[in-house]
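[User]
Um, tokens okay?
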Amino acid sequence: MGLLDGKIAFITGASKGIGEATALVFSEEGARIAINGRDQQRLLELAERINKNTSQKVLVFPYDVSNIVEMKAAFQQIHKQFGQLDVLVNNAGTLYDSLLGMIQLEKLEEILNVNLIASLLHMQLASRIMTQKKQGSIINVSSIFGRFGEAGQVAYSTTKAALIGATMSAAKELAPSNIRVNAVAPGFIETEMIRGLSEAKYKKRMESIKMNRIGKPKEVANTMLFLASDLSSYVTGQVIGVDGGMIV
């Protein structure tokens, strides 16, 4: 028996990193999976791995999360194929590294669309399906920067902080329908997003982590497994840091 037996989970940004790890962990715990990302080939490879391990059909939706038409089509297919949706993981995101005085309007609009507006719209569409059965769990992937900020990351931190605010408000709004809304705030996690860091910046980040090591995507996924499962049936409106003591 898995923790997610009988549940349907939709994970955005699943072609790599935290999203990929979450799809694997959830499927191993019995969930039937729908995955989204922009890299169709990597999504298909992930779907094949899941199918090989569990013999479960995986729905693959290769679209940019800022594309509202394709987003709506994905939810329609989930409802048609599965008849329900129990878990949404809003993981898709983009990083924009720039000092406040140098932020370009075009880049600001892009990061707002991907990290915040797309997440809100995914929450909206997911909650409509979840409300039909009066159950569900929505998990938003914020960031340690959304909680405590970071120099050079004003735009990114803004979107991740706003996502925490959306989590809190949606939790209150959807609680009467037994839909829980929580967030995770990962710290320094070993993903492709950090590979472009300079050696000096990497060293500085590592020195700030009390557990003296970088986090693994699966460690974030395991936290989301708790939030997706019935183990957290009375938990809503919370932000769980997964940062190894980066901020204590």
